[in-house]
Amino acid sequence: MGHAKKDVRFQPLNIALLTVSDTRTFETDSSGDTLQQCLQDSGHRLADRQIRPDDIYELRAVVSDWITRENVQVVLVTGGTGFTARDTTPEALRPLFDKVIEGYGELFRQLSFAEIGTSTIQSRTVAGIANRTLIFTMPGSPGACRTAWEKVICEQLDARHRPCNFVEMVLPDVSSSCGPRS
């Protein structure tokens, strides 16, 4: 569990949510509903929510639009991270990253191993930073979304979390908490 620093204020972030699916609608998007509830319960704001089919260029276009908007600091993407021919989320988004958050996929798979065993090896979750916007992908199940949010992403989107968080990367007025230590 992380450490929270009491004298730092919580900074609500604007989060866009993309569900990657050829079959889901807003009425059947339980993974998107899970993430929306999690982010709002944590005090963040939903900036936009869309559902798009598993198409590299359509996914890239939606996320490219969001990372150019000043009112979007974080993009959450659920679905399309497996190994089927239609799972293209990592391929769609990696070219957009200025920096890859290598530890995200590693940590997600480690945590989900306790829940689903070796099936976690089939998750190709990736994360990165593009144009000062954080992008996190996760599998398309509500359980995987909950694991990603509750055990990794939520703390990293809280300026009070120490020793490090990603808020300073997306909000220019938040001072750095992860500089060199004396």
Automatic annotation (TrEMBL):
GO terms for cellular component: cytosol. The keyword ATP-binding does not apply. Residues 16-160 form the MoaB/Mog domain. The keyword Flavoprotein does not apply. InterPro entries: MoaB, MoaB/Mog-like_dom_sf, MoaB/Mog_dom, MoaB_proteobac. Pfam families: MoCF_biosynth. GO terms for biological process: Mo-molybdopterin cofactor biosynthetic process. Keywords: Molybdenum cofactor biosynthesis. Pathway: Cofactor biosynthesis; molybdopterin biosynthesis. Coiled coil: none annotated. May be involved in the biosynthesis of molybdopterin. PANTHER family: MOLYBDENUM COFACTOR BIOSYNTHESIS PROTEIN B. Belongs to the MoaB/Mog family. This is Molybdenum cofactor biosynthesis protein B. It comes from Amphritea japonica ATCC BAA-1530.
